[in-house]
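Our example copied in:
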Amino acid sequence: MADEEIRQIKFAPPPGATQVVLVRHGESAPHRPGQLFDLVDGHGDPPLSELGHWQADRVGERLKDEDISAIYVSTLTRTHQTAAPLATHRGIEPVVEPDLREVFLGEWEGGLYREKAAEGHPAFRTMQLEERWDAIPGGESNDQLTSRTVAVLERIHATHPDEMVAVVVHGGVIGALLAHAARSRPFAFAGADNGSIHHLVMTEERWIVRRYNDTGHLNSMSAVPAPLT
């Protein structure tokens, strides 16, 4: 007994858990004042920029050897384009989940949000200080965003017990889901980088945040990031 060694315990997903790899889409095309983005169901729908396509390729390379059984995307083009390299590597057709769309920005859709942020509009400052999206005129509330996106992940968990899935989404969605998992301030996980990877482990009892804003795959000089499992 005196010679027995007790090692630290390595994390393992509980039986029945779903590992959810959240990916923020790559950088989207720049907005030019006076030229609104096309809208899909009221949401601005810019494609990826050249950098965004490179980021999508890097995400595909990063995750191609993970045991991913399904890929989910929103209705917006930038998530489809970001998921495409990984889908090709894995031979998986992405599933569209409309409720994974980005937070609705009300009167600031189509690229106007970027203008208002750049000029330091008072409503933008209120949004940041009070950590609520509906400070934007006509914007979606935190509760509405969280309710619809959590419901999607709960459906995914019910469909994929003991599996890993990739969910390619938006910065606001990632922030809402991780804040829900961590029971934190609404904007505690705001500002996820384009092309970043986040890792949730879901059970019926709880959600576990395992990784946030992993961008090691976007730095060609970095070491190969550790696998998710």
